[in-house]
Every structure is written in structure tokens, then in C-alpha cells.
Amino acid sequence: MIQLRNISKKFANGHVALNNVSLDIENGEFVFLVGTSGAGKSTIIKLMMKELELDSGMILINDKDVTKLKRSQVPHLRRSMGVVFQDFRLLQDKTVYENVAFAMEVVEASQKEIRRQVPMILGMVGLSKKSKQYPHQLSGGEQQRVSIARAMVNGPSILVADEPTGNLDPEMSWEIMKLFNEINQRGTTILMATHDLHIVDRMKKRVVEISDGNIIRDEKRGGYFSENQNR
User: Fold this and answer.
1) What pTM does this model have?
2) Is residue 67 part of a domain?
3) How many CA atoms lie within 13 A of 55 on its CB side?
4) For 202-218, how does the pLDDT look when each residue is reduced to its tens digit (9 = 90+)?
5) Is position 85 within any domain?
6) Which of 19, 27, 128, 129 has its CA 20 to 30 A from that of 214?
7) Is residue 59 a part of any domain in this protein?
8) Domain limits for position 118
9) Which of 214, 217, 200 is CA-nearest to residue 20?
10) Last residue of a domain, one of 131, 148, 165
11) d(Cα 108, Cα 101) in Å, to the nearest integer?
């Protein structure tokens, strides 16, 4: 499903973000990427999205080498990989419905498909009654639900999330995590970078810890704090 093969990335300022990292994530897994700021978590996600280019190595998503994709092909990558961000990245001049529909327009879905799929995905995230509202009229948790709907509307097999609860209070963070868990239980593979170690500990999913651009720990199933206390 997701294969990182000896990937390395060094920035112009000399910072080594990733150092020969390899990682396999199987179909249907839920994996947390944890580590301090600058450890390399977000760099992995940006490389998968083609926001950054690799120095060396290979990234395979559904057996396709994304490092070789042309810029014109990147939007279609979202058919197999939805992305959720900490800062939501919603279009402020578009309604909830239009924000989600836009993700389908980018991959040239028909209006018939859009009219069928958008209401269904808004229902899944609990926003059917908010479809005509604009982002500024929504709470932070609701805005994140819109971004999740946008990421899922094209039916991706993989959902990648970069600090999705970073701007939310603890109660709303847990509600969002329950939604991610429901999505995973329906078969979608999830890779999530997060600083929220209490949520990681509570979820009991696979934990991959990165430090100074290297994977230092890979627990197939278990919490964070409880595991560290036993080390």
C-alpha cells in the first residue's frame, strides 16, 4: 500500500530531515507517526504529496512510484490518497458543499457524480445540515470535518493526516479521532503524523517514532506512554 524505500531528504540549510528511511504500511492499517518537531514526520507526508522532492530513494503508493509523477499528474494522486491538514486549508469563499465538490472537480468528476457523492460524504462526517454554510461560520472541529470529507470524497484507499487535531481542544480532538477510526474500520489505510501522544496512547494503533530523520521505534500495536515507561 505505502512503501518508503531508503528515502533521504536534506534541506538547503543543511538540516537532514530524513536519513535512508524505509517503512512499509499495509492495506487497512492505521499508523501514527510520532516524534518531536523537526524529526521528519511532516517531511514524509510532503514527499508523498509531491510538495517536496526526494534526494534519494523511492516512494511507492499502490505500487506506483510517486517520485516520478509529473506535476500535471499530482492532482490525480488524490484519487488514491486523501490528505487532511492541521490548518484545514478550506476555501473561504466557498460553502461546505462547494469545498468538498471542488476536490472532485479537480479530478474532472462529472456533475452527476458530484451531486451524488458530496451529500453522501457530508452525511458520513455529520455535516449534512451545514452544507450551505461558509468556513468562517463553522467551529474548528466542523472545519476539520469538512477537510476530512474533502479528503474522502474521491474514495481514496489511503488517508494521510498531518497534525489533524493540532488546532482543536481535547474533547473535539477525540471526536475527530473517532471519525478517523470509523473511516479506518471501513477499510481505508490511515497514516497520521501527530504530537498528541495522549491520543496515540488511547488509540492503541501501530506507532512509528522518528528522531533526527531516523525511525527509532516501530510498535505494531500499542500506546506511546505505556510503551516508553517499559523501556
Assistant:
1) 0.90
2) yes
3) 14
4) 999 999 999 999 999 99
5) no
6) 27
7) yes
8) 90-148
9) 214
10) 148
11) 11
Domain identity same for 163 and 70: yes
Rounded to whole angstroms, the Cα distance separating 148 from 164 reads 9
Tens digit of pLDDT for each residue in 38-67? 889 999 999 998 889 999 999 999 888 988
Both 219 and 115 in one domain: the answer is: no
Is residue 143 domain-shared with residue 74, that is, in the same domain? no
User: Could you tell me which of 189, 72, 87 has the C-alpha nearest to residue 146?
Assistant: 87
| C-beta separation of 34 from 216 below 8 A | no
How far apart CA 34 and CA 213 sit, in angstroms, is: 12
Cell digits for 138? 463553522
Q: Which of 148, 175, 192 is the last residue of a domain?
A: 148
The H or E element spanning position 151 is helix 140-152
Answer whether 169's CB lies under 8 Å from 134's CB. Answer: no
Per-residue pLDDT, averaged over 64-85, amounts to: 82
Write the DSSP string, 68-122: G--GGGHHHHTTTEEEEETT----TTS-HHHHHHHHHHHTT--HHHHHHHHHHHH
Number of separate domains in the chain? 2
**Measuring CA to CA, which residue among 225, 173, 203 is closest to residue 31?**
203
CATH code, domain carrying 190: 3.40.50.300
